[in-house]
Specification:
It is built from four helices and 14 strands. By secondary structure, it is of the alpha+beta class. It has two domains: 45 residues; 239 residues, Jelly Rolls (Sandwich), CATH 2.60.120. The radius of gyration is 20 Å and the shape is globular.
Amino acid sequence: MIRRVFRNNVFQGPDYMYARPLQTTSAMHSSCVATLLWAALCLHCLPVSLALMPRLELWPSPQFWPINRQFPGLRALSEDPAIFAVDDLLDKETCEKLIAKAAPHMRQSLVQTYEGYVPNEARTSSDGTVDWSEVPSLHGIFSELLNMPVSHFEPLKVSRYEPGQCFKLHNDGLPGGSEVGLPICAAPFCNRVVTLFVYLRDCADGGATVFPLLGPSGEMRDPEALGGGPALSIQPKRGMGVIHFPSEMPLHGGVRDERVCHEGAAAISEKWICQQWGWTGPLIREALPDSMLGQRWDDVLL
């Protein structure tokens, strides 16, 4: 039901071709030619080279970005919508080095809009973004896991939640796609198509990431219904990476998947997390607003 609501008036790709009944050999030939022509057009328009296109078994679904399903330790927390986790994606030493690198540069967190990033009472944490050049090893790990070139990455963000701070219900994607792309990304119907966040410290209590529309195994639930059961809740564990897909692929309109709306529950002990967002196509770095640019922090490379 939720999927139907958010798919109205959305540009549809060539899915209908696969539903047509087979008729004559000539009709089959015409259909195959049309399908190949459509595929060629799509590959021409989308800024993803054939060398970077993954094998089909890596796709969680053709609607969503194809991560590397063969990455060691990857496990599913939810199948539909797809949410994955990887324990010990980053080791303790790397987590602590990233915290030490980021700590002097924390500032009031902002919320993304089409006009850039603005303050909002729904997000009370602090954060900082680091230039791509200072985290080459981290981006190498993330690129392998996400099956995505670093050119699609926003600068890595590091966030701190002090006791009582939170991030209320939100979706990481932009509200809707544009057929001609955006100033920061020329891909048609571009959007944030994958989110990877990594907890940098344990939190025994508080600070969980909660998906209120999903149950503990990823089943859909009504958060307002009596007896609806608990929501999918992920407690911070140092080094654990979590992946979800905030928006659909361009052939499905690049629209947000509202099922993965989530919130960062109020922290009880100090919480540290880093967030990596990946886009449909390469970002035009010189077009990024100042609020999205990564900063040069120090000479320590991670």
